[in-house]
Design brief:
The chain is built from 16 helices and 15 strands. The strands form three sheets. Strands 6-5-4-7-8-9 form a six-stranded parallel sheet. It has a six-stranded mixed sheet with strand order 10-11-15-12-13-14, with helices on both faces. Strand 10, helix 12 and strand 11 form a beta-alpha-beta unit. The chain starts with 15 loop residues before the first helix and ends with a strand.
């Protein structure tokens, strides 16, 4: 089960046993949010009756079944839909991240750019629009949404180019904007986000299956809510950009659109109560909470005193790391909130304000900051991992930090504080052999951090 993480992480030494336990816990968590299984658990077909969650659809009433959507976990979701519906599917197209495809029979998989959108993503989104054009009450639309959908379901509003949107995304990422803030802006410069896809499909009924990558699972934020009433306004989007000092740094067409929208010169995204949502069913099939519960169960099975601290953790990665390190020290020295051997499970998604020129991701940066705070603490370990297998623009999912990490690094001539200041956590942990590399997991439900005192 732990082989997927590579043998390097399980090198011989005093930490091998605790690392093996940590990776077993992580593997169980990833299995629990496998997108294929998540969809199959919520969808079944008996004769002409399709049951999805708590609803039933008589397929004899529909002339076509169309499947659209996007996200890093959407390919295995589409595989599950194909297995349930088979030849009843008229056609479909899903945008996924490069390398995240899967074999399909009917639904087409279009690989595209993430986190920075590219022209393949735009082309795929345009084809989805054409597919939905002319849909009516006799058509059933299935929308498969997962983390990464905001970048992959990309079709900018009129007058805004893909290059403009790329520049906006880069500016927001570098500013440390939260995913909620980023999505509030992107929904107001998109034809699909913020209820746009549901509007295009109307009056056809829409079933939207979502694998949540957003803390707390707010439906309008998952992939920027393509089938959900938008709770954000142009005023909110404008405030995000203005509040982070980006008005003069983002492309002029975007800034102008946000200004006009704030002044009521451009129609708002559809809101709660709009009749176009009366025929839309939104269902979350997998989330960070599910992964955290599976991690907790496995930790207890392995004999560890365990609890879930929270699945709502957000904030600057290096600052959150200090708090996590404090919790580990409390376990190690005083036995609270759990006694040794202890494992605390934490879910959520931190952010990084990029100041340096290095390479890394939020989980790797969290691990590096935790390593500095835990220097010399025996039995201490922090495992930080992105459930999608991709932490920032790297091939790593995260990293492992222990009480001896800093000492080992200095013995190799590495300066941990310099690496942290330069946002270069990837090369730091690469030199130590402590990167967690899973390859694409085909799921995406935020991040998991495991805090150990063993």
């Amino acid at each position: 089960m732990v082989e997927r993480f590579g043998k390097e992480l399980l090198r011989e030494g005093p930490s091998k046993e605790r690392r093996e336990k940590a990776l077993r816990i992580l593997a169980r968590a990833l299995e629990a949010v496998d997108p294929y299984n998540a969809v199959k658990a919520q969808m079944s077909l008996e004769g002409d009756l399709l049951r999805v969650g708590g609803r039933t659809y008589d397929l004899a009433q529909y002339r076509r079944i169309l499947v659209v959507g996007g996200g890093k976990a959407s390919a295995p979701m589409a595989q599950a839909v194909e297995e349930v519906l088979g030849e009843r599917i008229t056609g479909g197209l899903i945008n996924v991240k490069y390398g995240y495809g899967a074999p399909m029979r009917i639904i087409e998989i279009n690989e595209a750019g993430h986190p920075i959108p590219d022209e393949r993503g735009v082309a795929g989104a345009r084809r989805m629009v054409e597919m939905l054009r002319g849909a009516d009450e006799r058509d059933l639309v299935l929308c498969l949404i997962s983390g990464g959908g905001s970048a992959l379901l990309v079709l900018p509003s009129e007058g805004i180019t893909l290059a403009d949107k790329r520049a906006l995304t880069d500016a927001l990422l570098r500013s440390g904007a939260t995913i909620n803030e980023m999505n509030a802006v992107r929904k107001h410069i998109s034809q699909l986000k913020g209820g746009g896809l549901a509007r295009l499909a109307y009056p056809a009924p829409v079933i939207s299956l979502m694998l949540s990558d957003v803390v707390g699972n707010p439906l309008d934020v998952i992939a920027s809510g393509p089938t959900v009433p938008d709770t954000a306004t142009f005023q909110d989007a404008y405030q995000v950009v203005a509040g982070r000092g980006l008005l003069e740094k983002i492309p002029a067409p975007i800034a102008e659109r946000l200004r006009k929208g704030k002044e009521g010169l451009i129609p708002e995204t559809p809101k709660e109560g709009d009749p176009l949502f009366a025929r839309t069913y939104n269902l979350v099939v997998g989330s960070n909470e599910v992964a955290a519960e599976a991690a907790l169960a496995e930790a207890r099975r392995l004999g560890l005193n365990s609890l879930i601290l929270s699945t709502f953790v957000e904030g600057e990665a290096r600052e959150v790391a200090k708090a996590f390190a404090g919790i580990v020290k409390g376990m190690a020295r005083f036995g609270y909130p759990v006694a040794r051997p202890g494992c605390i499970v934490v879910g959520g998604e931190t952010t990084v304000t990029v100041r340096g020129m290095g390479r890394g991701g939020r989980n790797q940066e969290l691990a590096l900051a935790a390593a500095l705070a835990l220097e010399g603490v025996p039995g201490a370990m922090v495992v930080a991992c992105g459930t999608d297998g991709s932490d920032g623009p790297t091939d790593a999912a995260g990293a492992i930090a222990e009480g001896d990490t800093i000492g080992r690094a200095r013995a190799l001539g590495l300066d941990p504080r310099e690496h942290l200041a330069n946002n270069d956590s990837y090369h730091f942990f690469q030199a130590l052999g402590d990167l967690i590399i899973t390859g694409p997991t085909n799921t995406n439900v935020n991040d998991l951090t495991l805090l150990f005192a063993l």
